[in-house]
Amino acid sequence: MKISELDRARLKKWAGQRIPDHAKAEVAVGCVVRGSTAVITEERAPWDGVGQWTSRRVARLRRSDEGWRHAFWG
């Protein structure tokens, strides 16, 4: 079951609220949606201030007719 536009907006809003304002220059929560799957990521600024942000997958959510299913990465 494809993730609806309403659920996409909810996921984007949720991800934007995870990090307090004082830490947003250093860390962020991202969400990439494709079809019936959403991947939640933790994104971090480079420790030395040089280079690009890094991204680490934290969880995968899958939408089905029965509801949401999830898996977590350690």
What would you note in describing this structure?
This protein is α+β, with helices and mostly antiparallel strands. 16% of the residues lie in helices and 45% in strands. It has a four-stranded antiparallel β-sheet with strand order 1-2-3-4.
Unreliable stretches, pLDDT < 50, 5 or more residues? none
Instruction: Tell me the Rg in angstroms.
Output: 14 Å
User: Residue share in helices?
Assistant: 10-25%
Number of helices: 1
SSE succession: HEEEE
Strand content: 35-45%
Integer average pLDDT: 93
N-end to C-end Cα span: 26 Å
Instruction: Report the structural category.
Output: alpha+beta
Task: Supply the key terms.
74 residues, alpha+beta, 4 strands, 16% helix
Write the layout of secondary structure elements.
Elements: H1 5-16, E1 27-34, E2 37-44, E3 54-64, E4 67-72
Antiparallel strand pairs: 1-2, 2-3, 3-4
Give the structure's gist in a few sentences:
With 74 residues, the chain is α+β, with helices and mostly antiparallel strands. The protein has one helix at 5-16, and strands at residues 27-34, 37-44, 54-64, 67-72. A four-stranded antiparallel beta sheet has the order 1-2-3-4.
